[in-house]
Amino acid sequence: MSVLHLVRTSGFSDTNFTQCLELLLKNDGIALIDDGCYNLAHPAWREAISKISLEQCFFIGTHAHARAIKDTSEATNIGLTELNQLFLKFDTVMTWQ
Amino acid sequence: MMQTDQQMTKSIAIVNANGPLSTNGGKDSLDAALIYGSYEQPVSLFFHADGVFQLIQGNNLSSIEQKDYLKTFEALTFYDIENIYCCGQSLAQRGLEQDFAIEDVQVVNIDDFATKLAEHQIILRF
Fold first, then answer.
1. pLDDT digits (tens, 9 = 90+) for B22-60
2. What is the complex's ipTM, to 2 decimals?
3. Model pTM?
4. Most buried of A50, A89, B16, B112, CB within 10 angstroms?
5. Which stretches of A8-53 are assigned E, i.e. beta strand?
6. Which of A23, A91, A97 shows the shortest C-beta gap to B114?
7. Which residues of B touch A96 (CB under 8 A)?
């Protein structure tokens, strides 16, 4: 069973992101949306990548650019269409908000 | 094509991540659990992070004029909600004993907690 973790809040202002990392398993994926995009600059983001793999780390590009967050090689920039495809790729979705 | 009963019944995980008085999430999650239970859907309750504060003995919400929904936990068995998991790491981080206000709480380590959670088709976090 694989879970797509949808993180919607910043790890600098609450503990949702770090709690998500506690429950992250090898086959899971993580998608940063809305303020969750700030977590690309969070110290714990590297831990997320090491727990799963770079190919399973995503962020919504338009949400990041709206927040002056530049593109990064540490996650895959996706749009909402790809996000919908991810919902079908993983068995379950868990939202952190 | 008609779906078989087995396909239509999805297992639901309800995750509590906040203290009993920090948000309405505790009460809402209990309501959701009992509703799913009344429709005989397989429901499991998970307590993670500050959510473990809801389980401990001695909470007294009515003392500050708050509705004491925690008493409703006793109704869980009537609705066949028996899988109640508590994150052992969250307890330890908060210096809490395994002294719970309800019975049959299974304290599991963080990996087992995550694995059991991933076994459910629907995950609702409050």
1. 889 999 999 999 999 999 999 999 999 999 999 998 888
2. 0.79
3. 0.87
4. B16
5. 29-32
6. A23
7. 125
pLDDT in tens, A8-65: 999 999 999 999 999 999 999 999 999 999 999 999 999 999 999 999 999 999 999 9
Tell me which CATH code domain A3-96 carries.
3.40.1260.10
Cβ proximity of B47 and B90 under 8 Å? yes
Owning domain of residue B94? 9-125
CA dist., res. A96 & res. B38, Å (int): 27
Tokens 């499991």 belong to B44
B21 touches chain A (CB under 8 A): no
Question: Residue B5: its pLDDT value, please?
Answer: 54
B89/A96 touch (CB, cutoff 8 Å), yes or no: no
In a domain, B14, yes or no: yes
CA–CA dist B12, B122 (Å, integer)? 5
Tokens describing residue A8: 């919607």
